[in-house]
């Protein structure tokens, strides 16, 4: 059941993306030839006005086929006949819908939560070297670590881990005042755990507070912003060589991971909420990744739109959309090739596990 839920959730996110394009196209007066839920052979079709609505048999994604999107069309209601700003809105509407969906999912996830850990220092353990004069104090709110904003409490340890080392730049709020602590020594020491064993840690704890509905909405928004930043950090790791293709996961790997998280959850409610959290994270990731300026992605189409609009404004000549279609077609082939490699890697990993 967890696998089925994960697949449907993943498909829903893609469908919502296409729904964004569809709604924006309709609002802009662009002809939509077909709007489909899922892929593959159709199991239901209904023509309503100019648009064929269909449901297909493979529960993955969907599509919004607009007139003249990748080819020349004489139809005055074709995609390329619309004003450039309308085309811009149509292109970004899919990512916008994913982003909004991510926010809403995070709000749902945090609705049952009664307490949330905040990046505010609650106490220090005996032997901690981070407090005292010139150091951290109880009540300090951690605002930034190494130039990265702390959206949620877990950001603190994540950013310290990613940057490594013992010296970090902190920005805190104390008694309503911002304090900058450059080159602050953050050393871990051995502390005794409740079960008598020892572990390396910083030796302080954060504060958990009771939250209202408003607090949960704010926390959901901060979690969304944190998810956006995670995309940037992941891309930085790929470009710097800290991560490779082997660290990437496609739909197969993501569904398997969501299933594992659900299976290890202590209750059915926890399993659903954990999978929904993944859904919110994926929705935001899809929104950001789709706006990257790469061929075949909406971000690449936006860049092409802005360039062609500028060129046409200067030369007073229309550029044949088929040339842009060639570029996006080549980009799609490369993208599908990368997805195939990642899927193959995920399948091998699952069988090895």
Tell me what you see in this structure.
The chain has helices spanning 2-27, 84-110, 155-163, 213-240, 251-263, 268-290, 298-315, 321-352, and strands at residues 32-48, 51-66, 115-124, 141-145, 148-149, 167-174, 177-185, 189-192, 198-201, 204-210. With 353 residues, the protein is of the alpha+beta class. The protein folds into two domains: 2-110 and 281-352, no CATH class; 115-210, PDZ domain (Pdz3 Domain, Roll), CATH 2.30.42.10. The chain has a four-stranded antiparallel β-sheet, covered by helices on one side. The longest helix is centred in the C-terminal third of the chain and has 32 residues, at 321-352. The two termini are 20 Å apart. 25% of the residues are buried.
Strand order of the largest sheet: 5-4-6-7
Residue fraction in strands: 15-25%
Alpha-beta content class: alpha+beta
Q: Give the fraction of residues assigned to helices.
A: 40-55%
What oligomeric state best describes the polypeptide chains here?
Answer: single chain
Number of helical segments with 4 or more residues:
8
Average pLDDT level: 88
- Mass-distribution shape: elongated
Summarize the main sheet.
4 strands, antiparallel
Number of domains: 2
Chart the SSEs and their pairings:
Blueprint: H1 2-27, E1 32-48, E2 51-66, H2 84-110, E3 115-124, E4 141-145, E5 148-149, H3 155-163, E6 167-174, E7 177-185, E8 189-192, E9 198-201, E10 204-210, H4 213-240, H5 251-263, H6 268-290, H7 298-315, H8 321-352
Antiparallel strand pairs: 1-2, 3-10, 4-5, 4-6, 6-7, 8-9
Helix pairs in contact: 1-2, 1-5, 1-6, 2-4, 2-6, 2-7, 4-6, 5-6, 5-8
